[in-house]
Amino acid sequence: MPEATTRNTEQRLRELREALESGEMRHLRRMLHSLHPADIALLLESLQQAERGIVWGLVPPDDRGEVLLHLNEQARGQLIGGMDEAALLAAAEGLDIDDLADLVADLPEAVTQRLLTSMDVENRERLEGVLSYPADTAGGLMNTDAVTVRPDVTVDVVLRYLRLRGTLPSHTDALFVVDRYRKYLGVLSLAALVTFDPDRIIGEIMDAEVRPFDAALSAGEVAQRFESLDLTSAPVVDPAGTLLGRITVDDVVDVIREEAEHSLMTLAGLDEQEDIFAPVVSSARRRAVWLGINLVTAFIAARVIDVFQVPIEKVVALAVLMPIVPSMGGIAGTQTLTVMIRAMALGQIDLTNAFYMLRKELAVGLFNGLLWAAVMGTAAALWFRSADIGIAMGVAMTVNLLCAALGGVTIPLVLRRLGIDPALAGSVILTTVTDVVGFAVFLGLGGLILLDRF
Fold it and tell me: What is the share, in percent, of the chain residues with pLDDT greater than 90?
């Protein structure tokens, strides 16, 4: 978050808390009325749960649906749990179909049924169409409010049609050209519409080169295309080529933000939707799983050390130096793992180039291994006045950095093949590998070379 935005949020939070403590509810209500729903959501997430409930009661009813959409899942669930059916229906009223589809997943079933019953047939079918696709696909992201025109009419006819409509959906930068069966044909930009001669036929000036998005396309791929093609909106079609709706840049920005949060939080085994002010028990339970997994891996490393208990007892230098090798391997492996996870997220890695990536990372690992083997081997030899300790350190460093490179490339590929998120589990497995290999090679080699001397 930019520094200026952070300062503004902190200032608003300070003002809001001062108003709460002083009981100045009118000032607080005016303040909330002046904010965008996204800003209100950010403030709510920054409050403790007791304060959150008070502030939520002062949020303008017309903004509540939008605010709920911007909240993390835990905070949203807490607020929805405290609302009655009438309030939930009022919050959902007026939302765009794509936003409504996001909110429906968190509503109680009875409220969802009431909501569907209260909608007209056209909007109900549109909502059900969006809900039929997973949320993390183009179909789940799309809105069905696309404005369509036929290819055999003139620019003048389209302009008159738009005047009769009166308004256009938000983020509309183009109209979509379809045939009588609603098959997608191309895009007509608003710029072209207002600059071409009124007598020109739409089929002659439309852009037929703009490729539509398949409804099953993943949200990550949608975000990549929007970024690479600088899109504001894009058509979504079914396998038969029938236009279903459109995706707009505001939805893609949400995807990019969620993926960034996911990448950051899952590296620590956390949920990006976690409420920072959730109850202690809830937060502890969520984190306990990965702490337990890490404890198991730590025991594995400890068992390796225990195998070499005799050489450690007799050669103090091994005990002093042994944390260095797994630490260097862990850092090097994390670097490779991060590069791999990013490349996989961007769709840059597949079977055709995975082997090249492996060779390249092994070469990097070998180069850094030899470099730091020379540095640490020399340092260890001078420190303990023993060339043998320097050799053990140098060999172990080189071997572990090679293993770190190997693990950093292969572990995320294998996890993805097994359907496991590499960002979530990769670092735990890799740390175990580098710890076990580092301890085993250094202590084993050190004991083999040095034990006869003591």
Answer: 26
